[in-house]
Amino acid sequence: MKQPCPYQQALDLEWTAILDISLATVAERAGVSVSTVSRIVNGETRRASPETVARVLRAVEEVGYRPNSVGRALRTRQSQVVAMLVANLDNPVMATIASSTEAALRNAGYVMILCDTHDRADLQDEYLEAMRSQLVCGFVLVAAVPSRVLSKLCHERAPLVFVTRRSPHGVGAFVGIDDRAAGAAVAECFVSDKRQRLGVVLPVHSSPAAKARVAGFADRLAELGVDPRTVRHEMGEGTSHLDVGYDAAHRIFEAGPVHDALFCLSDQIAYGVHRRARERGIEIPEACSLISIDGSPLNAWIAPWLCSIQIPYANYGEEIVSSLKCVTAEETAEDRILPIQMASYYGPIAKD
């Protein structure tokens, strides 16, 4: 027999208390029972006299009570309010995912509340607590980090969908790509182009997804006969991936022979690398080829020098909604792995 979900049980108790207090206020004013008030405000008046109905309705107006449809919906597991927590809305990738998700949720009859955690565990917890107090029916977390409240929600089996990064606490549905495969695709491109001096540009504090991309890159190089120990790994500092790329490239381009191929873990890292290369008079992609992971549509306009692994972020919304429906129904949600393809300024080239 399926065990009841602790998260939903907690919501039921909280809303029952809220509704009971409100109904009790009306019942006390009208001099009737709470059950009588409940029936009348819900339109069931046949079991009460006209005088009782009038007295209850008058008390409703006097105390300013309004039936809480949101509360009733949550108690019947029909709430349509979803909290979406995003690590950094300054990042165009995350803004695209948020926009896609909002549209898909709206089309499915949900309402989305959007929060920016700035990739901070403490702020993530603040928002999770606030959204839980609003009794949302589910949580969508883009690039979540480990945190105390998130761990608690996972333990309670709250409806959680993790996007781009898997759950740091091992519970919840996942929507994203195969990060190892993305890194492997970059390795294949460099080897196919006969690039010799390879490097990887990544943040000092890398996420599990970033580490998986680097691991996939190294493993595929080894399979193709390239010793991954010959690859330079340069980590950049900064609050944004633009800063990360620029900071790392400063050291890369000052260190002797120019690397002829750099794997940038995101488009924005590649933009930062390119900026530094221009300042140093290094031609991109002639002297140094850059391949990133993201594949923003803006690249065709502002970065014709960049090749990238294209991720269909605009399609994430539908996959997120499908996963959310599974977890809110307490069903097992399979990982939803979206396809990737290699893209350059002249258009996408499908990768098998």
Number of domain modules: 3
Residue runs with pLDDT of under 50 for 5 or more positions: 345-352
What percentage of amino acids are in beta strands? 15-25%
Largest sheet, strands/sense/barrel: 7 strands, mixed
Rounded to the nearest angstrom, the radius of gyration is 27 Å
Shape: elongated
Question: Approximately how much helix is present in the residues?
Answer: 40-55%
Oligomer: single chain
CATH topology of the largest domain: Rossmann fold
CATH superfamily of the largest domain: Response regulator
What's the order of the H and E elements? HHHHEHEHEHEEHEHEHEHEHEHEEE
Instruction: Provide the structure class.
Output: alpha/beta
Distance between the termini: 44 Å
The number of helical elements comes to 13
Domain HTH lacI-type: 21-76
GO molecular function: DNA-binding transcription factor activity; transcription cis-regulatory region binding
Pfam families: LacI, Peripla_BP_1
Domain HTH cro/C1-type: 19-63
Provide a quick synopsis of the model.
The protein has 352 residues and is an alpha/beta fold.
Structure notes:
There is one protein chain. With 352 residues, the chain is α/β, with parallel strands linked by helices. It has 13 helices and 13 strands. It has a seven-stranded mixed β-sheet, sandwiched between helices. A six-stranded parallel β-sheet has the order 2-1-3-4-5-11, with helices on both faces. α7 links the parallel β3 (138-142) and β4 (160-163). The radius of gyration is 27 Å and the shape is elongated. It starts with 5 loop residues before the first helix and ends with a strand. The model is unreliable at 345-352 (pLDDT under 50). Pfam families: LacI (PF00356), Peripla_BP_1 (PF00532). It comes from Aureimonas pseudogalii. Keywords: DNA-binding, Repressor, Transcription, Transcription regulation. Residues 19-63 form the HTH cro/C1-type domain.
